[in-house]
Structure to design on (218 residues):
Protein backbone atom coordinates (compact mmCIF):
# COMPACT_ATOMS: atom_id res chain seq x y z
CA UNK A 1 0.00 0.00 0.00
CA UNK A 2 1.25 3.44 -0.96
CA UNK A 3 2.12 5.50 2.10
CA UNK A 4 1.14 9.13 1.69
CA UNK A 5 3.26 11.87 3.23
CA UNK A 6 1.78 13.93 6.02
CA UNK A 7 2.13 17.12 4.07
CA UNK A 8 0.37 18.82 1.19
CA UNK A 9 1.08 17.24 -2.18
CA UNK A 10 1.57 19.48 -5.19
CA UNK A 11 -0.36 18.18 -8.19
CA UNK A 12 0.73 19.42 -11.60
CA UNK A 13 -1.99 20.72 -13.92
CA UNK A 14 -1.41 20.20 -17.64
CA UNK A 15 -3.72 23.20 -18.23
CA UNK A 16 -1.03 25.38 -16.67
CA UNK A 17 2.10 24.19 -18.45
CA UNK A 18 2.31 27.60 -20.10
CA UNK A 19 2.63 29.47 -16.79
CA UNK A 20 5.78 31.57 -16.56
CA UNK A 21 7.56 32.81 -13.45
CA UNK A 22 8.41 36.51 -13.06
CA UNK A 23 11.55 37.59 -14.90
CA UNK A 24 14.03 39.30 -12.60
CA UNK A 25 16.51 40.15 -15.36
CA UNK A 26 13.97 42.08 -17.43
CA UNK A 27 11.34 43.75 -15.30
CA UNK A 28 9.25 44.58 -18.38
CA UNK A 29 8.83 40.88 -19.16
CA UNK A 30 5.67 40.08 -17.23
CA UNK A 31 4.88 36.66 -15.84
CA UNK A 32 2.15 34.44 -17.29
CA UNK A 33 -0.66 34.51 -16.54
CA UNK A 34 -0.65 38.25 -16.11
CA UNK A 35 -3.70 40.34 -15.27
CA UNK A 36 -2.36 43.81 -15.93
CA UNK A 37 -4.28 47.06 -15.49
CA UNK A 38 -3.07 50.43 -16.80
CA UNK A 39 -5.20 53.35 -15.66
CA UNK A 40 -5.35 57.14 -15.77
CA UNK A 41 -6.83 60.03 -17.73
CA UNK A 42 -6.36 60.57 -21.47
CA UNK A 43 -3.04 61.40 -23.15
CA UNK A 44 -0.68 60.18 -20.44
CA UNK A 45 0.86 57.32 -22.41
CA UNK A 46 -1.17 54.29 -21.30
CA UNK A 47 -1.22 52.59 -24.71
CA UNK A 48 2.46 53.40 -25.28
CA UNK A 49 3.32 51.77 -21.96
CA UNK A 50 1.31 48.69 -22.93
CA UNK A 51 3.17 48.44 -26.24
CA UNK A 52 6.46 48.47 -24.34
CA UNK A 53 5.29 45.50 -22.28
CA UNK A 54 4.21 43.65 -25.44
CA UNK A 55 7.51 44.03 -27.27
CA UNK A 56 9.49 42.97 -24.18
CA UNK A 57 7.51 39.75 -23.71
CA UNK A 58 9.70 36.64 -23.88
CA UNK A 59 8.77 34.14 -25.21
CA UNK A 60 6.91 36.57 -27.45
CA UNK A 61 3.17 36.48 -27.94
CA UNK A 62 2.08 34.51 -30.97
CA UNK A 63 -1.33 36.16 -31.16
CA UNK A 64 -2.39 39.58 -29.88
CA UNK A 65 -6.09 40.45 -29.90
CA UNK A 66 -7.35 43.91 -28.93
CA UNK A 67 -10.91 44.73 -27.97
CA UNK A 68 -11.54 48.37 -28.84
CA UNK A 69 -14.84 50.26 -28.96
CA UNK A 70 -13.61 51.68 -32.29
CA UNK A 71 -13.08 48.23 -33.77
CA UNK A 72 -10.95 48.08 -36.91
CA UNK A 73 -11.06 51.88 -37.23
CA UNK A 74 -8.47 52.04 -34.45
CA UNK A 75 -4.84 52.03 -35.59
CA UNK A 76 -3.32 52.82 -32.20
CA UNK A 77 -1.73 49.37 -31.99
CA UNK A 78 -1.80 48.03 -35.54
CA UNK A 79 0.60 50.73 -36.76
CA UNK A 80 3.38 49.22 -34.63
CA UNK A 81 2.19 45.79 -33.39
CA UNK A 82 1.03 42.77 -35.38
CA UNK A 83 -2.45 42.34 -33.89
CA UNK A 84 -6.15 41.78 -34.50
CA UNK A 85 -8.68 44.50 -33.59
CA UNK A 86 -12.21 43.49 -32.59
CA UNK A 87 -15.21 45.37 -31.17
CA UNK A 88 -16.77 42.49 -29.21
CA UNK A 89 -15.85 40.15 -26.36
CA UNK A 90 -15.33 36.83 -28.15
CA UNK A 91 -16.51 33.36 -27.20
CA UNK A 92 -13.91 31.18 -25.52
CA UNK A 93 -13.18 29.07 -28.61
CA UNK A 94 -11.88 32.23 -30.31
CA UNK A 95 -8.45 31.51 -28.76
CA UNK A 96 -6.20 28.50 -29.36
CA UNK A 97 -4.64 27.39 -26.07
CA UNK A 98 -1.70 25.88 -27.96
CA UNK A 99 -0.31 29.32 -28.81
CA UNK A 100 0.75 32.12 -26.50
CA UNK A 101 -2.16 34.60 -26.54
CA UNK A 102 -2.54 38.19 -25.39
CA UNK A 103 -5.98 39.78 -25.00
CA UNK A 104 -6.10 43.55 -24.45
CA UNK A 105 -9.21 45.42 -23.31
CA UNK A 106 -8.45 48.88 -24.66
CA UNK A 107 -10.08 52.08 -23.42
CA UNK A 108 -12.52 50.30 -21.15
CA UNK A 109 -15.43 52.50 -20.12
CA UNK A 110 -18.66 51.67 -18.37
CA UNK A 111 -19.33 47.91 -18.18
CA UNK A 112 -22.99 48.70 -18.89
CA UNK A 113 -21.96 49.42 -22.47
CA UNK A 114 -21.57 45.65 -22.86
CA UNK A 115 -24.58 43.38 -23.15
CA UNK A 116 -25.24 40.66 -20.55
CA UNK A 117 -23.49 37.90 -22.50
CA UNK A 118 -20.38 39.99 -23.10
CA UNK A 119 -20.21 40.99 -19.42
CA UNK A 120 -20.40 37.29 -18.54
CA UNK A 121 -17.64 36.38 -21.01
CA UNK A 122 -15.35 39.15 -19.78
CA UNK A 123 -15.79 38.06 -16.18
CA UNK A 124 -15.03 34.45 -17.04
CA UNK A 125 -11.90 35.40 -18.97
CA UNK A 126 -10.57 36.96 -15.79
CA UNK A 127 -12.15 34.51 -13.38
CA UNK A 128 -10.81 31.24 -14.78
CA UNK A 129 -10.56 30.89 -18.54
CA UNK A 130 -7.38 32.84 -19.30
CA UNK A 131 -5.18 31.13 -16.71
CA UNK A 132 -6.12 27.69 -18.07
CA UNK A 133 -5.95 28.57 -21.75
CA UNK A 134 -2.70 30.44 -22.29
CA UNK A 135 -4.11 33.98 -22.42
CA UNK A 136 -2.49 36.99 -20.77
CA UNK A 137 -4.94 39.80 -19.99
CA UNK A 138 -4.26 43.55 -20.18
CA UNK A 139 -6.91 46.17 -19.42
CA UNK A 140 -6.55 49.89 -20.11
CA UNK A 141 -8.99 52.31 -18.52
CA UNK A 142 -9.30 55.96 -17.60
CA UNK A 143 -10.62 55.11 -14.14
CA UNK A 144 -9.65 52.08 -12.05
CA UNK A 145 -12.97 52.15 -10.23
CA UNK A 146 -14.96 51.95 -13.48
CA UNK A 147 -13.58 48.44 -13.97
CA UNK A 148 -15.63 45.39 -12.96
CA UNK A 149 -14.81 43.96 -9.56
CA UNK A 150 -13.44 40.79 -11.15
CA UNK A 151 -10.77 42.77 -13.01
CA UNK A 152 -9.79 44.95 -10.05
CA UNK A 153 -9.62 41.98 -7.69
CA UNK A 154 -7.50 39.73 -9.90
CA UNK A 155 -5.08 42.34 -11.25
CA UNK A 156 -1.56 41.29 -10.27
CA UNK A 157 0.27 44.18 -11.97
CA UNK A 158 -1.17 47.71 -11.96
CA UNK A 159 0.20 50.90 -13.50
CA UNK A 160 -0.93 54.24 -12.06
CA UNK A 161 -0.14 57.78 -13.13
CA UNK A 162 0.10 61.01 -11.15
CA UNK A 163 -3.14 62.82 -10.44
CA UNK A 164 -4.12 65.88 -8.42
CA UNK A 165 -7.16 64.30 -6.77
CA UNK A 166 -6.33 63.78 -3.08
CA UNK A 167 -9.45 61.72 -2.50
CA UNK A 168 -8.60 59.38 -5.38
CA UNK A 169 -5.00 59.08 -4.16
CA UNK A 170 -6.27 58.04 -0.72
CA UNK A 171 -8.58 55.44 -2.29
CA UNK A 172 -5.73 54.05 -4.37
CA UNK A 173 -3.44 53.90 -1.36
CA UNK A 174 -5.98 51.84 0.59
CA UNK A 175 -6.63 49.61 -2.42
CA UNK A 176 -2.95 48.70 -2.75
CA UNK A 177 -2.11 48.59 0.96
CA UNK A 178 -0.01 51.74 0.93
CA UNK A 179 -0.08 54.75 3.20
CA UNK A 180 -1.63 57.78 1.56
CA UNK A 181 1.34 59.96 2.50
CA UNK A 182 3.74 57.43 0.93
CA UNK A 183 1.80 57.34 -2.34
CA UNK A 184 1.71 61.13 -2.46
CA UNK A 185 5.47 61.23 -1.80
CA UNK A 186 6.11 58.76 -4.63
CA UNK A 187 4.15 60.92 -7.08
CA UNK A 188 5.81 64.14 -5.89
CA UNK A 189 8.55 64.08 -8.54
CA UNK A 190 6.53 62.33 -11.26
CA UNK A 191 5.65 64.07 -14.50
CA UNK A 192 2.16 63.42 -15.97
CA UNK A 193 3.80 60.80 -18.23
CA UNK A 194 5.59 58.81 -15.51
CA UNK A 195 3.95 55.62 -14.28
CA UNK A 196 4.00 53.81 -10.97
CA UNK A 197 4.11 50.04 -11.31
CA UNK A 198 2.61 48.06 -8.42
CA UNK A 199 3.75 44.50 -9.10
CA UNK A 200 2.42 41.77 -6.85
CA UNK A 201 4.06 38.98 -8.87
CA UNK A 202 7.61 39.74 -7.74
CA UNK A 203 9.19 40.01 -4.30
CA UNK A 204 8.60 43.13 -2.22
CA UNK A 205 11.95 44.59 -3.33
CA UNK A 206 10.56 44.88 -6.87
CA UNK A 207 6.94 45.61 -6.01
CA UNK A 208 7.06 49.39 -6.55
CA UNK A 209 8.79 50.77 -9.64
CA UNK A 210 8.83 53.97 -11.67
CA UNK A 211 8.43 53.59 -15.44
CA UNK A 212 8.71 49.79 -15.20
CA UNK A 213 12.40 49.62 -14.34
CA UNK A 214 13.36 52.04 -11.53
CA UNK A 215 12.95 50.53 -8.06
CA UNK A 216 11.13 52.61 -5.44
CA UNK A 217 11.64 52.13 -1.71
CA UNK A 218 9.45 53.63 1.00
Amino acid sequence: MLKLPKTLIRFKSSDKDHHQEPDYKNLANCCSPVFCVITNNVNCGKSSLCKNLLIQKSPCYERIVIFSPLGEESTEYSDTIDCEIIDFIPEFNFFDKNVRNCFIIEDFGDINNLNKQQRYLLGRYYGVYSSHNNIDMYCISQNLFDLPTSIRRLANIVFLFKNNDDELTSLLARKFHLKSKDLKAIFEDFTPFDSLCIDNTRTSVYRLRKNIYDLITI
About this structure: Strands lie at 35-39, 63-67, 84-86, 101-108, 135-141, 157-161, 195-199, 208-210, 214-215. The helical segments are 46-56, 116-132, 149-154, 166-175, 180-187. The mean pLDDT is 88.
